[in-house]
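stage 2 :: seqdesign
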């Protein structure tokens, strides 16, 4: 018993410290998974040893206390927290307990339905309206007492200042203030440039913004609101939660359009799974789905236990941010010689995936973030995005951390690195650098280029190590070295034959993909297609000047000069000749997306994620529909397809008056079901 009591004390202390850092300081010290594990362990100990359960236990109250910086507001109806369920089994366990409680309450025969809505990772707030006028806004605080942030909430345009009649004499609307993901990324970038610490996640950025003592600062930050309920449904005549949401919509409050009513627990589980699947597509951060009993009278009968209502549960997703230790910062050398540092991390689960490495972009990115070897760092992964280090948890530094210095010599060949004019990255200028050769071969064989099945990263490294590959043209001589391939560990006849068949098939990929496969700086797949239009043969490409290449769609002076410089190298010309001698198709087939189809004659740019399409698939679909896909928004762009994470291209399109189509309508645009918008129509019929 003494061991259990000591552990309860320790867990209580850890949770209270984490609560203070998260809710009051907006500076989290542990990740969500660790915090939840502490809370579950504490609840388990209290269940096993009831004598250790105290009224002030973190399991019996809402986390977070008013910071003291604002006037206090006592909630007329407590703002409770939600119990968590991770996974389908836990969700169904909650449902069984709910039915047992209904039976004990004498309503076992009631058929209930549920409402499933996204669990926004923001800051819970209460908005009080008297006689239809917004008079007070408060944070949740500890659930009983919150902070008066009325002045700051008035800066959020989505919050109605007055309600259209009819309205009750008094009503308290509840919702979540959040920061859209696109705005959050821009916000953190700006803080890095200003030398300020970054926020770990959008929730902390929103909380920090809403707790500014000067409302003018809050007004400069693009905060948004999702509303999800009222303190007393009877105030608005709502018999169900769905009725409450309808009232909120009618009064001008933003309610998520994808909130759904579900008839049973099987449908609820499916709805939660759908939210988790589309999590990476959203422009707001969610850490789960909220499941609520719809009927208000059943909610009242079920009541609450401790800190949470019995009639609702938070179905939690795997966290997209975590805190771990930065073990080191090694440096990769890319195919163009760029030195790219990356983070080597203590393994940590983020978004359901174990992360050991994360991108750091370049040496200036490391310096801006102020990273040191040994730091505790915030790691972020959303959807299928490559994990990235957001920044260090400076408060956890011990003094043992070591500064990192960018190497002044190439780690692969020892050549002194050089800066590149107009760019941040340092480069290895040695064209014979083995790391550059390996990366060039990997790129040439990749899916977007020559798509050679069986020639992945590990195979390329092994073949290079054995001297079977030195450049991309050597790929097409591997059939003469079949016996040597068979000598490699794990390589049997079938594997060798499949590789050689994939190499032979790649010869017909086409001139545009071959140009892309050459790995010329600044030349992506769409640019390669444009270059093939103006230089339709290898001879034409060799003869083209930078001015000639600048006539290609979307190709500016920088790209044109890069291509011309690449072709001025005798080694590169020799490689191109060898590829031609080995039978690769080196003439353009003219398929530039200018034929017939719903998008005939139109130029489209795709930005952000498009559900059901990779970026390359989406571009190919545009070409198949008769259109042309380019990388950059310009005055010649006819339509921008903008998915979540669109960034600067969306802003430029709006500035130029380019019509924008939501990613959800992309398939309809391709089929012709949705007519392509025009500049005059800004969206079409």
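stage 2 :: out
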């Amino acid at each position: 018993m003494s061991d259990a009591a000591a552990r309860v004390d320790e867990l209580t202390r850890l949770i209270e410290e984490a609560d203070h850092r998260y809710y009051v300081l907006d500076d989290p010290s542990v990740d969500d998974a660790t915090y939840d594990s502490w809370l579950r362990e504490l609840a388990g100990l209290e269940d096993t040893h009831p004598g250790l359960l105290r009224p002030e236990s973190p399991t019996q109250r809402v986390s977070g206390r008013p910071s003291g910086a604002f006037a206090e507001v006592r909630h007329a109806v407590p703002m409770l927290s939600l119990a968590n369920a991770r996974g389908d089994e836990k969700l169904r366990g909650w449902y069984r307990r709910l039915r047992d409680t209904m039976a004990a309450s004498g309503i076992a025969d009631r058929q209930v339905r549920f409402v499933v809505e996204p669990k926004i990772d923001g800051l819970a707030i209460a908005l009080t309206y008297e006689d239809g006028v917004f008079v007070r806004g408060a944070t949740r605080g500890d659930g009983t007492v919150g902070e008066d942030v009325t002045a700051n909430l008035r800066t959020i345009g989505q919050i109605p200042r007055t309600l259209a009649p009819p309205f009750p004499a008094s009503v308290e609307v509840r919702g979540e203030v959040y920061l859209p993901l696109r705005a959050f990324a821009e916000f953190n970038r700006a803080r890095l440039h200003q030398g300020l610490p970054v926020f770990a996640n959008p929730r902390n950025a929103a909380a920090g913004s809403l707790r500014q003592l000067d409302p003018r600062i809050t007004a400069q930050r693009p905060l948004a609101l999702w509303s999800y309920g009222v303190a007393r449904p009877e105030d608005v005549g709502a018999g169900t939660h769905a009725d409450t949401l309808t009232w909120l919509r009618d009064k001008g409050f933003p309610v998520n359009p994808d909130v759904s009513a579900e008839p049973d627990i099987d449908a609820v589980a499916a709805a939660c799974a759908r939210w988790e699947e589309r999590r990476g597509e959203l422009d707001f951060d969610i850490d789960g789905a909220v499941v609520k009993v719809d009927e208000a009278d059943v909610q009242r009968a079920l009541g609450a236990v401790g800190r949470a209502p019995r009639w609702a549960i938070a179905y939690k997703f795997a966290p997209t941010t975590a805190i771990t230790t930065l073990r080191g910062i090694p440096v990769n050398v890319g195919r163009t010689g760029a030195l790219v540092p990356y983070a080597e991390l203590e393994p940590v689960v983020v978004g359901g995936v174990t992360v050991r490495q994360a991108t750091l972009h370049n040496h200036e990115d490391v310096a801006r973030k102020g990273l040191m070897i040994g730091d505790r760092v915030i790691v972020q992964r959303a959807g299928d995005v490559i994990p990235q280090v957001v920044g260090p948890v400076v408060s956890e530094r011990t003094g043992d951390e070591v500064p990192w210095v960018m190497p002044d010599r190439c780690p692969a060949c020892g050549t002194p690195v050089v800066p590149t004019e107009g760019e941040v990255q340092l480069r290895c200028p040695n064209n014979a650098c083995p790391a550059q050769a390996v990366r060039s071969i990997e790129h040439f064989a990749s899916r977007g280029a020559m798509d050679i099945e069986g020639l992945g990263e590990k195979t390329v490294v092994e073949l290079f190590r054995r001297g079977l590959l030195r450049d991309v043209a050597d790929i097409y001589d591997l059939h003469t070295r079949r016996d040597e391939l068979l000598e490699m560990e794990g390589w049997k006849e079938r594997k060798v034959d499949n590789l050689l068949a994939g190499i032979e098939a790649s010869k017909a990929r086409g001139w545009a993909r071959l140009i892309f496969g050459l790995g010329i700086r600044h030349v992506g797949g769409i640019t390669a297609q444009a270059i093939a239009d103006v230089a339709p043969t290898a001879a034409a490409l060799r003869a083209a000047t930078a001015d000639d290449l600048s006539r290609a769609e979307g190709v500016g002076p920088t790209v044109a000069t890069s291509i011309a410089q690449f072709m001025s190298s005798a080694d590169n010309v020799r490689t191109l000749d060898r590829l031609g001698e080995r039978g690769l198709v080196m003439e353009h087939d003219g398929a530039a997306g200018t034929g017939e189809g719903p998008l005939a004659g139109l130029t489209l740019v795709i930005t952000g994620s498009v559900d059901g399409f990779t970026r390359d698939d989406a571009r190919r679909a545009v070409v198949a529909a008769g259109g042309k896909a380019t990388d950059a928004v310009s005055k010649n762009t006819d339509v921008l397809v903008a998915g979540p994470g669109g960034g600067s291209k969306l802003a430029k399109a709006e500035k130029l008056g380019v019509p924008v189509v939501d990613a959800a309508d992309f398939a309809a645009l391709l089929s012709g079901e949705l007519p392509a918008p025009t500049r005059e129509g800004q969206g079409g019929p």
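stage 3 :: structure notes
- The chain is about 35% helix and 20% strand.
- The CA atoms of residues 126 and 174 lie 5 Å apart.
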